């Protein structure tokens, strides 16, 4: 129980301590921001600070800090420490860097940032990889909210109708100016999300008075918890299972959206670093809800995470408040899926230099995405197995993006004569995670197709390559020394 509350305290303290240190290193200043220098009334629009914070929170907080942590808490109470430590040192730093690199580069999207700092060869691979990942995000974040709504109203068959409705909304949110749909409805959605999450927290606290061991590892839980002995090694599996809450590469694709709507760089720590900390708090609360249900109903450790979520809300909140809370989780998914699709449009437009001010050009840029996502939805819903494959590859690909963004952030800091170690150490760790995972994982280990190597061998290979990334970052930063963001902007490198 105590680890849960210590973890929450650590998150809050981390924002005011380590977050302040990261801000001092990055050094936001009073220079004009992209919404002022490149205002277009569509993507470059000035929005109030509070609205930017709420949009960023909903952009980054998909189903990961709910579904991911409900699965990940099967590793035990240690998760209550790993989430805040990883969040403060890696995840929030990652989001802060991604947002600031974008702002300094005129609101550039992630592929351009990668190209600037890691070179054209790395960029060519990364741009394709990122777009494939975002397509998976869009499909996943249509499926999961549709499934949750369908489970909430089991008396009627509405799954495919909900899928269609969410997809249409995604298309509209992608095409319309950022202040017309996203800017207007996100504050309302944020309130619903926070109310639902707070309700779970209050219910858990009251339950602890009658059962102080509710957030500890019961004997029944320990029998089924995930360990290396039963084929679930905490490294690398935990950091692929729990992304949102600890660190998520997907966030770096979302930060440029807000980098284009912020009026001053001094809002960056609260908007980027701070909202990742808030996501960590959300993840901690839902992880606690998962552990409580697993302790009370050990049989739920073998069922789908979405069913566990329904059990959490039903048991602790009842039917009425439970429905409101489930709708909050639905909103988490929807408000990440719509901006993922928007980020895809912006990235394609940036790569191919397509003017996005005319509506028709925005639609033509979006049309291929509509067709691909439609195909993914049809395929992923063929069976539970196909959807699980989709989720597994999304989770792993997500962390590949995180490792790449942190490495780019390290180069960016080093070439500006700043302390890049705040980025390169977590970058090396995440590189180790994604490499050891894909080298070890296989259907025999209950995962997607991988290389299926021995775990210790996977560790050794991943460790060597991760050390090479340190050398790669130093090499790139030395090669780029003296190249300022202003020079990149003036030369129109994209």
Brief overview, please?
The chain is mainly alpha-helical and 494 residues long. The protein has 20 helices and no strands.
What does this structure look like?
This protein has 20 helices and no strands. With 494 residues, it is mostly helical. The protein has one domain: Hydantoin permease, CATH 1.10.4160. The longest helix is centred in the middle third of the chain and has 48 residues, at 305-352. The chain starts with a helix and ends with a helix.
Secondary structure layout plus pairing:
Layout: H1 2-16, H2 18-26, H3 34-37, H4 49-60, H5 64-72, H6 79-104, H7 110-118, H8 120-152, H9 159-175, H10 182-210, H11 219-224, H12 234-241, H13 250-259, H14 268-296, H15 305-352, H16 359-380, H17 384-415, H18 421-440, H19 455-479, H20 485-490
Helix pairs in contact: 1-6, 1-14, 2-6, 4-10, 4-13, 4-14, 5-14, 5-15, 6-13, 6-14, 6-17, 6-18, 7-8, 7-17, 8-9, 8-15, 8-16, 8-17, 9-15, 10-14, 10-15, 12-18, 14-15, 15-16, 17-18, 17-19, 18-19
List keywords for this structure.
globular; about 75% helix; mainly alpha; 20 helices; Hydantoin permease; single chain; about 500 residues
* Radius of gyration, in angstroms, nearest whole number: 21 Å
Number of helices: 20
Spans of 5+ residues with little confidence (pLDDT < 50)? none
Distance between the termini: 50 Å
| Number of β-strand runs | 0
Number of domains: 1
Strand content bin: under 5%
Secondary-structure class: mainly alpha
Q: What characteristic shape results from the CA principal axes?
A: globular
Residue share in helices? over 70%
Main beta-sheet annotation: none
Classified by CATH, the class is Mainly Alpha
User: What's the SSE pattern?
Assistant: HHHHHHHHHHHHHHHHHHHH
| Mean pLDDT across residues | 88
**CATH architecture tag:** Orthogonal Bundle
CATH fold-level name: Hydantoin permease
């Amino acid at each position: 129980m105590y680890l849960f509350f210590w973890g929450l305290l650590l998150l809050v303290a981390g924002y005011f301590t380590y977050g302040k240190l990261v801000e001092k290193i990055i050094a936001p200043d009073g220079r004009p921001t992209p919404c002022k220098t490149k205002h277009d009334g569509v993507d470059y629009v000035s929005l109030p600070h509070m609205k930017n914070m709420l949009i960023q929170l909903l952009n980054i907080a998909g189903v990961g800090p709910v579904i991911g942590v409900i699965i990940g808490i099967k590793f035990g109470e240690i998760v209550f420490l790993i989430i805040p430590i990883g969040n403060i040192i890696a995840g929030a730093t990652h989001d802060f860097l991604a947002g600031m690199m974008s702002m300094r580069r005129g609101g550039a999207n992630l592929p351009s940032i990668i190209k600037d700092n890691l070179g054209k060869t790395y960029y060519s691979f990364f741009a394709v990889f990122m777009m494939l990942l975002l397509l998976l995000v869009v499909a996943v974040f249509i499926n999961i909210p549709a499934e949750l709504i369908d489970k909430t109203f089991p008396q009627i068959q509405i799954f495919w109708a909900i899928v269609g409705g969410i997809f249409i909304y995604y298309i509209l949110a992608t095409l319309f100016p950022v202040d017309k749909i996203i800017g207007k409805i996100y504050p309302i959605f944020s309130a619903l999300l926070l109310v639902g999450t707070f309700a779970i927290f209050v219910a858990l606290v009251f339950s602890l008075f009658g059962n102080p061991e509710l957030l500890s590892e019961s004997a029944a839980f320990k029998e089924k918890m995930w360990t290396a002995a039963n084929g679930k090694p905490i490294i690398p599996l935990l950091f692929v299972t729990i992304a949102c809450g600890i660190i998520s590469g997907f966030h770096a694709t979302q930060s440029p959206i807000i980098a284009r709507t912020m009026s001053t760089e001094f809002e960056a720590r609260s908007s980027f670093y701070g909202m990742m900390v808030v996501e960590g708090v959300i993840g901690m609360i839902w992880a606690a809800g998962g552990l409580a249900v697993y302790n009370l109903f050990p049989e739920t450790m073998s069922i789908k995470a979405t069913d566990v979520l329904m059990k959490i809300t039903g048991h602790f909140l009842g039917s009425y408040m439970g429905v409101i809370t489930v709708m909050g989780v639905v909103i988490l998914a929807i408000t990440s899926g719509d901006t993922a699709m928007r980020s895809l449009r912006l990235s394609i437009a940036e790569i191919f230099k397509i003017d996005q001010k005319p509506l028709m050009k925005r639609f033509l840029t979006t049309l291929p995405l509509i067709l691909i996502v439609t195909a993914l939805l049809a395929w992923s819903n063929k069976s539970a197995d196909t959807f699980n494959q989709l989720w597994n590859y999304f989770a792993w690909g997500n962390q590949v993006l995180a490792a790449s963004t942190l490495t780019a952030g390290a180069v960016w800091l080093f070439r500006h004569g700043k302390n890049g170690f705040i980025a390169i150490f977590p970058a090396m760790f995440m590189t180790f995670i994604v490499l050891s995972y894909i080298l070890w994982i296989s259907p025999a280990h209950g995962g997607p197709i991988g290389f299926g190597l021995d775990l210790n061998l996977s560790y050794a290979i991943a460790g060597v390559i991760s050390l090479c990334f340190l050398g790669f970052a130093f090499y790139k930063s030395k090669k780029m020394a003296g190249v300022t963001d202003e020079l990149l902007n003036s030369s129109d490198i994209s």
